[in-house]
């Protein structure tokens, strides 16, 4: 009997130590992910700052300079000012859409994904397909912005590098988990290229992966042939924000 009690105590102690090690490992992994997300967000802010400085701000400065000629009655100067301000407005709208897509806030993720797919099809030669039948039309979740940002970032990468003919989005929601699958039939991404892209400052994939993992989700890249990115994250149903609902009334 004493032997049994001793054995039980040893087993209980081992289980307790195992749980402690597991909790410690999970805490370390969570800390690592949070640090990685913070680092990536800093780099994203730097990238945004550079885009504003090198894009919209330069056009504003050009317009300000050309205003001197406009004051002297130059028609050409007026045309240049008009062009510079139009380009500045376009670049600023692009940035605003990235930071807070209007259609996502107003109509939800399914509508935003439809708009994203239609936009890609319009401005590229890709054949774009969207399967969102498994996502309820009125569903709003706390993962919508993360899913949309991932779709935009990964599709942008495909447009720039994949040399694909087809791009397919598959969006689904089962009441507690949101899933997104993005597949192209392009040249594929060797694993070492993903590593080098982060080292070279191309943080898109790394940023999406870190944010998905930090949210308790999964991020899987399969390539080649082509490239398939599969994302799943916990997602709870939410209501539209009062500001959006009030704006529509």
UniProtKB/TrEMBL annotation:
> InterPro entries, alphabetically?
HATPase_C_sf, HATPase_dom, Sensor_HK_TwoCompSys
Domain of life per record = Bacteria
Share an example GO biological-process annotation for this protein: phosphorelay signal transduction system
User: Which positions fall inside the Histidine kinase/HSP90-like ATPase domain?
Assistant: 142-237
| EC main group | transferase
Q: How does the protein associate with the membrane?
A: Multi-pass membrane protein
> Where is this gene product found?
Cell membrane
Among Gene3D superfamilies, the record links this protein to: Histidine kinase-like ATPase, C-terminal domain (3.30.565.10)
State its Enzyme Commission number(s).
2.7.13.3
- Swiss-Prot/TrEMBL keywords: Cell membrane, Kinase, Membrane, Transferase, Transmembrane, Transmembrane helix, Two-component regulatory system
Q: Which GO terms describe its cellular component?
A: plasma membrane
In terms of CDD domains, this protein maps to: HATPase_UhpB-NarQ-NarX-like
Q: Does the keyword Membrane apply?
A: yes
> GO MF terms on file?
protein histidine kinase activity
Task: Supply the name of the protein.
Answer: Histidine kinase
